[in-house]
Write a structure and sequence with these properties.
Number of strands: 5
CATH architecture: 3-Layer(aba) Sandwich
Oligomer: single chain
Number of helices: 6
Strand content: 15-25%
CATH superfamily: HUPs
Order of helices and strands: EHEHEHEHEHH
Shape: globular
Distance between the termini: 57 Å
Strand order of the largest sheet: 3-2-1-4-5
Number of domains: 1
CATH class: Alpha Beta
């Protein structure tokens, strides 16, 4: 029997309901889904440490029997190879995402022709949600509780106690 294992990479700083939507839907399509947290991102200083993000994702996905969480450095294709993944799951919210993701998918294909990329759109209510937007709005006192899991909301409040609404 042939099983399909996919990897869903990202920084997840923090995990959003959009991420969870893709995890839930991706887990229905593949036999195993590995959520892979990139340890050294070029996206600037993270709000949460890698262990904090790993813990949040593990807690949020504990109900999925076929989802695991790892961390990685370096090339995604190397991580996918080490995990035995045959596909990469990526979310596309807008045309700007597609342009970036298309380039990444083509480079990954060049580096490993056996690794496929699966693009998924999030549920409509999450098409504008990004971790960067969540952090910015929250730090300025905005309510993001409908856009992140409750456990992430608790950790945001603990991490940013002196936000603008204080």
């Amino acid at each position: 029997m042939h099983t399909v294992k996919a990897i869903y990479p990202g920084t997840f700083d923090p995990l959003t309901n959009g991420h969870l939507d893709l995890i839930a839907r991706g887990a229905k399509i593949v036999d195993e889904l590995v959520v892979a947290i990139l340890r050294n991102s070029e996206k600037g200083a993270p709000l949460f440490t890698v262990p904090e993000r790993e813990e949040m994702i593990r807690e949020a996905t504990q109900g999925f029997g076929n989802v695991s969480v790892i961390t990685f450095n370096g090339l995604l294709v190397d991580c996918a190879r080490q995990q035995g993944a045959k596909a990469v799951l990526r979310g596309i919210r807008a045309i700007s995402d597609y342009e970036y993701e298309f380039q990444m998918a083509m480079m990954n294909r060049k580096l490993d022709p056996e690794l496929e990329t699966l693009f998924m759109m999030p549920a409509e209510k999450y098409t504008y949600v990004s971790s960067r937007l969540i952090k910015g709005v929250f730090q300025l006192g905005g309510d993001v509780s409908a856009l992140v899991p409750p456990l992430v909301m608790e950790r945001l409040k603990a991490k940013v106690p002196n936000r603008s609404d204080s």
